[in-house]
Amino acid sequence: MLAAGCGQDTRIRHGNGGFPIIARPPSRTRLPPLGPVVLAVALVVCGSPVPGWAQPPPGLDAASPSDITPMPVAPATIARDESGRVTVRAVRVSQAPVIDGHLNDEIYSQSESFGDFIQQEPREGDPSTERTEVWLLFDDRQIYVAARCWDTHPERMIATDMRRDSSVLGQNDNFGVIFDTFHDRRNGFFFYTNPLGGFADIAVTDETNSNREWNTLWEVRTRRSGEGWTLEMAIPFQSLRYARAGQQVWGVNFRRVIRSKNEITYLTRMSAAYGMRAMQKLSSAATLVGLVAPAARAAIEVKPYALASVATDLAADDAYRNDPGGNAGFDVKAGLGKGLVADFTYRTDFAQVEEDEQQVNLTRFSVFFPERRDFFLEGQGIFAFAGAGARPPTSAGGWAAVGNTPVLFFSRRIGLHDEETTVPITAGARLTGKVGKYTIGLLDIHSGEVPAAGARSTNFAVARLKRDILRRSAVGVMATYRSEAEDGSGPASAFGVDASLAFYDNLSFNMYWAATRTGGTRGKDQSYRGQARYEGDKYGFEVDHVTVQPNFRPEVGFLRREDFRRNFGKARFSPRPEWWKAVRRLNFEASLEQFTDNRGVLESQEAEGLFRVQYLSGDIFTVEYSNYYELLAEPFDVTDEAIVPPGGYHFQDAEVSYLLGPQRPVNGTVSVVAGSFYDGTKRQVGFRGRVDLVRSLTLEPGITLARIKAGTGAFHSTLATMRATYAFSPRMVFAGLIQVNTKDGVASANLRYRWEFSPGSELFVVYSEGRDMTQPTRLPALETRSFVVKITRLFRF
Questions:
Q1: Which of 112, 439, 481, 680 gives 466 a disulfide partner, CB atoms 3.0 to 4.6 angstroms apart?
Q2: Rounded-to-integer distance, Cα 520 and Cα 168, Å
Q3: pTM
Q4: Which residues contact 86 (CB under 8 A, 6 or more apart)?
Q5: Which of 380, 434, 384 is closest to 182 using CA atoms?
Q6: Could you give the CA distance from residue 414 to residue 335 in angstroms, rounded to a whole number?
Q7: Smallest Cα–Cα separation from 619: which of 565, 673, 659, 656?
């Protein structure tokens, strides 16, 4: 029977997995008629009230090492038991190792290493084919992670990029560590590097949200040899967040990728069903003991910036040329202890933001671009509502659309008007972090006005509260407020409650209810969702329902389409054929997605069938067939020449694509699409890839050629991109991006030099221009141009 009261914990015992579990006394309290509401409140206030649904105490950092089995006994640094549980012991050092990647300090011969990594791919559960030795050390200031990655064929090692935070690092040989500093088995900090010394850091929230734009201060050095490669990391305690000082019990895991074999190994056994997201699966990580953390100081970081620019805009109503400008501002970050961080920004700057990559959009709806501004990046996952947010980069590069689930808070709505005009941010403050089982996010930002664009001075406020329940689940609430709606109709607000429930290893549920209030509208302003998903290695399914009523308008969020009900179902069968030696996995998928308005009229439908072959080489071959129905209530302007009249349309297409494995010098995806398009036809060919010329210079070409016939006309569209990157070192990079989009009639170029001359301090030199390609009889005419020099300096106290 469910209990709505909050009983006291009576004892701690060990359950499955060997982690301490709370056992609660049975309750006889009956649920009132409003049972679901009372239950939700009880879950937020006092955690799991269901007898038998055990959960670990907050963080487990309060547990003594004797509560955790198995325990390594010194000098041993690792212990494993028959059920696969792993515990690692950190070793205190009196003298810090020299971070040079050589591993010639005495501590490495005096302290035992650990290893015995286990394959996730290609043969789940088998020992790694290559030996890996790891040391985990610490002193009063830093944690040190060192590894010797043996390789019987070091000449086959894949190492092509040394840029910081490059997405290519994951496609190279690499080694990484993740720390679950609150030991809540859901949040962590992930650090990894490749043999060239390229490095990246990621903040993981709720095992699912990866904030790849998050950066902190740490150091890493690597060395290659005839026996493999070695690495040393130094991660300051001050760069992490944890509950309290003294003896720690954290979660930890290590991953090594041997890309020449497409072999992925972990310290603990990880299911192949998790794919590359297995490192985020902190509920399956090892336990780290022996670590003693210093008292969290009231650490303060001040990061001022100064900027000088020259700009031209000949497309504006008040056109100007070579207009000089300048700006200055600063960000302040303060650690408040117990996992809370306060941030303050004054005159937030946009200049270091990379130019968005253009996308071919043949739909009636908006595309989604990710947040890149520094101030909004830390704690970004805290503000994710009901699991909705930006999807990771697609296999062909770029970013996928966010999908049709509303995003209640989308930070790019702050500082932008009509998705185009930049609005200055005067000042803002934020509080994020975790206290016990509660995750907190508060944000308040004030933006200025741009009268020429109709943008008024506006205040934005967001509040987010989540509570951990069960072992890997959470419930929460979110509220947003905007003092002036984008259309000038007055204040706008939104409120929602959500739950993300995870059971076993692969079964999860997402649900939410939300409502908005916008000036001039009343009623029919709600949205809700229910989703169930099972993601096993061999089988998978998903069912999802989303309702968005006509007046639901999240003015601080993102809504791709309005007034709809979405029903979605998908089934997958993914065998691993032992008889087909060249193939790692086969995928058979079928899905059906329907959109109706809130009266039940069918507006859109897509039925899809997919077959995919994943080869041991890393190549992927895919065939996909889609059948569509679209009901147009008004004309659809695909382009100015091709206008589809109102009506109902059935059409279909097929796509064949081949992805060349990332270990190849020339890699990427080639795709061909052919079929009908509304009342016409569609032919599309594309390539998006990467060419490694030398270890410091790479080219990333992309081209999509489309020939569309629809409605009143036909058109040819070309989207061509070329990104060239030269890395002088992991902290000094020159990059150029050229884009040509004939559908929109624009061409742009962006040249960017970035030098991190001191950890956290950077120099940017950026040149950008945009040209009009709509006049076929002459060369593209200059529309916009800018030259910017910006410097930031980090002071840490």
A1: 439
A2: 48
A3: 0.81
A4: 70, 78, 79, 80, 267, 268, 286, 287
A5: 434
A6: 25
A7: 659
